[in-house]
Amino acid sequence: MDATSRRLLESQFAVHQIGDRSASAAMLAWFLTHVERLDPEEVPLAICDGSGDKGIDALTVNDDLSEVTLYQSKRIESSTKTQGDNDMKNLMGAARYFLTPESVDGLLASRPNLELRRLLLRHEVRDKIAQGYRVRRLVFVSNATLDAAGSSFQAAMAGQEPALDVWHGERVAAVAERVVRAGVRPEHTTLIAATAPLLDELNGQAKLAVALVPATELVKLPGLDDLTLFSRNVRLSAGNTRINRELAKTVADPGEHELFPASHNGITLLTLGLKVRGSRLGLQGVTVVNGCQSLLALHRARQTLTPQLKLLVKVIQLPDPNSTLSDTITYRANNQNAVNIRDQRSTDSIQLDLQRHVKEKFGSTFAYTIKVGERGYADRSLDNTLAAQLIMAAYRRRPAAAVRKVRLFDQDYHSVFSSDIDADKLFLLSLISEAVEVARDDLRGELRSSFSSVRFVVVSLLAELLLLTDAGARLLEKPGLWLPNQTDKVLSFLTERARDVASNINDYVKDAVDTAVREDGDFDAKTVFMSTTGIAPLRREIVTFSRRLHSRDPGYLFDLAPQDA
Fold first, then answer.
1. How many CB atoms lie within 10 A of CB 346?
2. What would the pLDDT profile of 515-564 be if each residue is shown by its tens digit?
């Protein structure tokens, strides 16, 4: 691993080295946050690193999968040392504590450290092992390169149960490069305020300057043309909204310019260096985290601006480029305005990781967009709102919950965008979405009119059909074996089956309506599929129908061999 990657890792781990947390535990906290995608509140509760940890540095329990995952981390300070196999063997040995309820009793009786003991009791691990839960995954994390022994041991354990998932330095660094916080524009910039700025120290961490600044100064900021000035903003242009239209109208009327700061919330800038001399603000690097819409409107109307049009500007100097204060300011500044929770997540490391992973994997053929107004660069694209809905329908098998957009980016966020979702699955989901769009025209009229909810029922049932064959199940789990090389064949299959699902739904609804009429009852096709119980009978019927067809025509269900098979 090169020196640049090592410095990147050290800087990202440092953010998590808080309180009495060790360097190794800080690395593990970073891993649980950015790779495992645990909720930030769950991370400290999962870690038990320290003396008496019995080779277990963290532990998580997945009740949906009846699965316990054990973690061990080894942070090596020397840049020349490598990672051997001894620590991995210790982790493999720790798994034996979880074979039976009695072995968990033995672990508790062996006087583990307090954090591990609390973890075991909090998650009721003994009882869950008795119920059939198993350790199916062992995760080893190191910031060093594997030596020959480490590589050999990893290879020898491939395919074994429980699975050993080794995250060595190079693999960890690849994630770190994708989740690194967007930087500020590097230029030194000077703003001349209308009056001398107010200056204050913020709790010894940062510096704040507040001033009225003419719009003619602000439109000179670097990065307005290519939008890089807003790399840390939660959203870009919100389009032709009422607020944006009114803003443009105000800017176009010189008679409104003097009153502008009285009715406008102002903008917030972050910088890495701030110097105030008289009315001049010197900024070493700059980014905008609140006020994107206003600055873009001013930039578009820059030929009509007058010196009388001023904005209230807050400039905050960050203590360092990786300071979490940046996230706090961005969140709170935007939380006061009409910015939804999806916008807030656009600067989240999970979304940045997925977006960068997609770009690395698919280049200009597929884009994953995470901000309102973000410009597409690819032939095919998927925005993260639709992605969340598709994940909920296809991978979480909860189509009725897919329509609750706010929950998907709030309470359900970490279960939706958990660590199993990657660039390949996002690409597959985009194909599934395209196939279902084609099937829309085949639906009954009342179902087409409520397609916003029915579409996710079709998505879920299409995923259900894939699970009926080994090849289909592998496509869902490892779509990279087929995609993008066999995109046309996969899309063709998905489209045909989506249309069949639509036809089956039509027949099901027709029969249900006829039955309701005969029995003097009621069947509301627009709402029946908005609950799990409403979908269940249809799911059973389509699965039975598809299996019967496949027995007569073996090519009906998915059996396409992967490209490398």
1. 23
2. 888 887 777 665 677 777 778 888 999 999 999 999 998 889 999 999 86
Judgement on whether residues 526 and 470 belong to the same structural domain of the protein: yes
Domain contains 285: yes
| Distance separating alpha carbons of residues 27 and 13, to the nearest angstrom | 5
- Of 298, 316, 339, the position where a domain reaches its end is 339
Residues 74, 115 within the same domain: yes
- Is residue 31 located within the same domain as residue 90? yes
Could you give the angle at which helices 451-466 and 470-477 cross, rounded to 10 degrees? 120
Are 261 and 276 in the same domain?
yes
- Answer with the one of 339, 374, 399 that is the final residue of a domain: 339
Amino acid at 179: V
More confident residue, 69 or 248: 69
At a CB cut-off of 8 Å and minimum separation 6, what does 139 contact? Answer: 36, 69, 70, 71, 72, 165, 167
Residues 354-408 have pLDDT tens digits of: 999 999 999 999 999 988 767 667 889 999 999 999 999 999 999 988 888 878 9
SS3 letters for 495-535? HHHHHHHHHHHHHHHHHHHHHHHHCCCCCCCCCHHHCHHHH
**Is the same domain home to 526 and 386?**
yes
Task: Give the domain extent around 197.
Answer: 185-339
Same structural domain for residues 43 and 121?
yes
Per the structure block, which two tokens stand in for 299? Answer: 């930039």
Task: Considering only residues 427 and 232, tell me which one the structure prediction assigns the higher pLDDT.
Answer: 427
**Average pLDDT over every residue of 322-343:** 62
CA distances to 268, 302, 326, 558 from 332, rounded to whole Å, are: 11, 29, 10, 48
Do 190 and 174 belong to one domain?
no
Whether 233 and 221 have beta carbons less than 8 Å apart is answered as: no
CA angle 312, 315, 318 (to 5 degrees): 160
Query: Is the same domain home to 288 and 385?
Result: no
Could you tell me the sign of the dihedral formed by the alpha carbons of 124, 129, 132, 138, in that order? positive
How many other CB atoms are there within 10 angstroms of residue 405's CB atom?
15
